[in-house]
Amino acid sequence: MTEAGAAAPRAGAEARAITLAARSSFLWGMRVLPKARREAMYALYAFCRAVDDIADGEIPRPQRLIELGEWRAEIGRLYAGRPRHPIAIALRDPVRAYDLPRAEFEAVIDGMEMDAEADIRAPDRARFDLYCRRVAGAVGLLSIRIFGTSGPAADRIALTLGRALQVTNILRDLLEDARRGRLYLPRELLVAHGITEDEPLAVMADPALPLVCLAFAAEARQDYAEVARLLRPADRRVLRPCVIMMRTYQALLDRLVRSGFRDPARRVRVPIMVKLWIVVRHGLL
Question: Measured between alpha carbons, how far is 51 from 221 in angstroms, rounded to an integer?
């Protein structure tokens, strides 16, 4: 076996270990995939984790941008057939097997650079939409190809679901992000409810915050409903991971809405038995 061939199993094992250690809710959807596609998703998740850790890291901002630039160069080497980083090596076969677009990996890095350059605080809608397209939409477009489908209808599902998942994550992590100096709630939504402040912790204490969050949650619910509509003519067996991820995050959003967003410090989670039922209902039947 060549050195490159020997590196691939080790790289795959590293990507798998990173994904399993993260204990992400996305893991439940990945587990219903056939082995090769599952391993591809582990590699994609490990890449996303690696660049996200850089953007969220404690190192100086210029160094974050340098390290993200190194990942951009590594993606170039990946598509030239010369990856060096273990995660990029784990991505080599999936890129070829599932025709994964280079531009979408680069879009993820673009989104991480938005976080690394400066703390995002109450972005206007255009900037928020750009951020979502990069950090969530790009991952969705890569994932749906790994699941086994592509084309305009599949891309629409990926982009719409990616936005809904991102909004749900933002609503779940409000206080955690605020403590980092970040506020992803769109400026127009804040102003519509009388909040002109953009200092994250001050917004967390504003009595109008629950109304902003409920309005934002309503947008995510509309996106989830649109994805459900789009899924009807699709091959639901191929898109089982997509459905499991959607239903898990819908359950999280429902719990957030029921909390009324009255206490940003309260961590809302989906119980393990609910997640298991979603997998059984949508992954096995």
Answer: 28
pLDDT at position 7 over 80? no
Hey, what are 244's tokens?
Answer: 């499991």
Give the separation between CA 219 and CA 188, rounded to whole angstroms. 13
Cα Rg, the chain, nearest whole Å: 19
> What is the residue range of 215's domain?
119-285
Q: Concatenated DSSP letters for 189-248?
A: HHHHTT-----HHHHHT-TTHHHHHHHHHHHHHHHHHHHHHHHTTS-TTTTHHHHHHHHH
Going by pLDDT thresholds of 50, 70 and 90, the confidence category of residue 217 is very high
Amino acid at 31: R
pLDDT of 271 higher than 90: no
Report the CATH number at residue 197.
1.10.600.10
pLDDT at residue 268 tops 50: yes
Q: Which amino acid is at 70?
A: E
Q: How far is CA 185 from the centre of its chain?
A: 17
Asked whether the beta carbons of 62 and 122 are under 8 A apart, the reply is: no
**Same domain as 136, residue 62:** no
How many residues would you count in the chain? 285
Containing 71, the helix (H) or strand (E) segment is: helix 61-79
Band (234; pLDDT cuts 50, 70, 90): low
pTM for this predicted structure:
0.92
